[in-house]
Amino acid sequence: MMPLDRIRNFCIIAHIDHGKSTLADRLLLKTRTVEERQFRDQILDDMDIERERGITIKCHPVTMHYTARDGITYELNLIDTPGHVDFTYEVSRSMAACEGALLVVDAAQGVEAQTVANTHLAMDRGLEIIPVINKIDLPNADVEGTARQIEEILAIDASEALRISAKTGEGVGELLEAIVARIPPPKTNPTARSTRALVFDSVYDEFRGVVTYVRIVDGMLRPSERIRMMGTGTETEVKEVGIFTPKPKPADALGAGEVGYVVGTIRKPSEVRVGDTVTLTKSPATEPLPGFRPLRPMVFCGFYPVSAEDYERFRQSLEKLSLNDSSFTYHPESSAALGFGFRCGFLGLLHLEITQERLRREFDLDILSTHPAVIYRVLLRNGEVLDVDNPVRMPDPTRIDHIEEPIIRAFIICKNEHIGDIMKLIMDRRGEVQKTESLDTTRVMLTCFLPLNEILVDFHDTLKSISSGYASMDYEPAGYQSSDIVKLDVLLNGEPVDAFSCLIHRSKAHAKGREICKALKEAIPPHLFPIPIQAVLNRTVIARETIRALRKDVTAKLYGGDVTRKRKLLEKQKEGKKRMKQFGTVSVPHKAFVAVLKAGQS
Ligand code: GTP
After folding, report:
1. How many other CB atoms are there within 10 angstroms of residue 503's CB atom?
2. Measuring CA to CA, how many Å separate 541 from each of 106, 490, 537, 593?
3. In a 10 Å sphere around its CB, with 0-12 CB exposed, 13-18 middle and 19+ buried, how is residue 203 labelled?
4. Buried-most residue among 90, 148, 168, 295 (CB within 10 A)?
5. Which of 17, 79, 354, when mutated, tests ligand 1's pocket best, judged by the most ligand atoms within 8 Å of its CB?
6. Distance in angstroms (rounded) separating the CA atoms of residues 448 and 242
7. Half-sphere exposure (Cβ direction) of 592: Cα atoms closer than 13 Å
8. 94-124 pLDDT, tens per residue?
9. Cross-strand pairs, 543
10. Ligand 1 touching residue 83 (CB < 6 A)
């Protein structure tokens, strides 16, 4: 075990693509934790989708040993963090296990929105922040300008900022020295009588059960001791402790200040809660460690298997998925239109998209998703307060006193010339600009309040397109605000289809209703009878379209010939029909659901 003063625990925070993973790789090479020949790029990103999209989703800890210029060997524990706004939660839990943070800023891009949001998180946690200006090898790197922005926008002294190229390795040696010199060693309570370790993540291993990632704060953990989770009360015997190199490597013990993993005999992931404190059963600690911001899904939607026979397989897949993604929640629900499915909670839209993609890919499941929704707080006339994340559960309007919706505080960084368009976008989305600050001669930062509901579907895409890809955005929750929210229903052939209902601000209901009807008209193929499509607000029809009757004769273009050809075409048509959902007498293809989701967003 390392003495405390030779341990340094840190994370890397950065805006997406500013080089966090590349720097982590470089540190692994420089400290010989990984040899050049076994190296694959971005060694810490091991999920398929992470590699493919080049984004980090889960935090990956790794222990490195570094012999500094003073001749002493230090243990450096790096906890990688994700860089997308959806995963702020993962960032904050990584930070809880560290004393310092490397704040990486791309010299060619300068400070971006996420740099600001993550720096706020690190400052709130009291971490020692080391500013690192990366990509100095690029011909368009503006090192001085970036240093100035770090000082002006983030209020961090940049005079000792490190200038590096994670790609070529330039300056990385100095960075390692700075980590040792500037990040304080972990503190422990010398009078603590028992072990306390913070759980900052957990993964499920088919053979060993739940593997808990911990940062030891007081005392130590050894195999064969009995431990208890103070929050959930779960007890188990420690089978193995170890560190990440980055592969798990068993150790004799984990001592104060160290970061590693513990394997017990826990089979149920729900028995280990991230943020909990591990202590010894024999001599338990009295006070748990302060946890961190609890996990809270922000976006909800229903997932339904396209074919009902897949339900059981779907349930098992969700269960497996949630084993390794504690931020994803689900519970069974049923919809009159879609049958049995699950209401799922996500940290944000990217998270939703990635989960859907993983289900499709890893479990080979075709699923429909309903309109994403936030949690509305509904205050009833009788004084009751309901949290509603599903339009189906919205009480009758006559019982409602008022509805409140979640608000976010967003930081948007853009070029001066785009400020007009972006302000208009914010206004269109019912937002309010709180302040504008200029970053340098060409860029500004807007701080604004927006309803979370309004940024759910395509805010990022629109922001990127009106700013030609230059604007960046990050946000933090900013409470609730009273709002005129209404429920918009959709009737197909006179029957309400609950899967198409949504909760929306009154000022947007008409336009959205029209768009949905239009989208459905285009997406649903003609039937043998006409199908009216209606958007209804409070029992009043606000938009209507009709699909004209038609019969599609798929064999029409055949003249005589072999009967097997005709059969083949009919079979093909049957296959296609299977993929449709039947609503009463109306068949709705998969693409109609997608069309409805996208309707009325622009
Ligand atoms: P996320 O994992 O999505 O948060 O991104 P990241 O911040 O980890 O960025 P990543 O390390 O994937 O780097 C983004 C891109 O920048 C990659 O194409 C890297 O090759 C490139 N890059 C990183 N560091 C440097 C550098 O020092 N110089 C140059 N020229 N390119 C770099």
Report:
1. 22
2. 53, 9, 6, 21
3. middle
4. 90
5. 17
6. 45
7. 24
8. 788 899 999 999 999 888 887 887 888 888 8
9. 535
10. yes
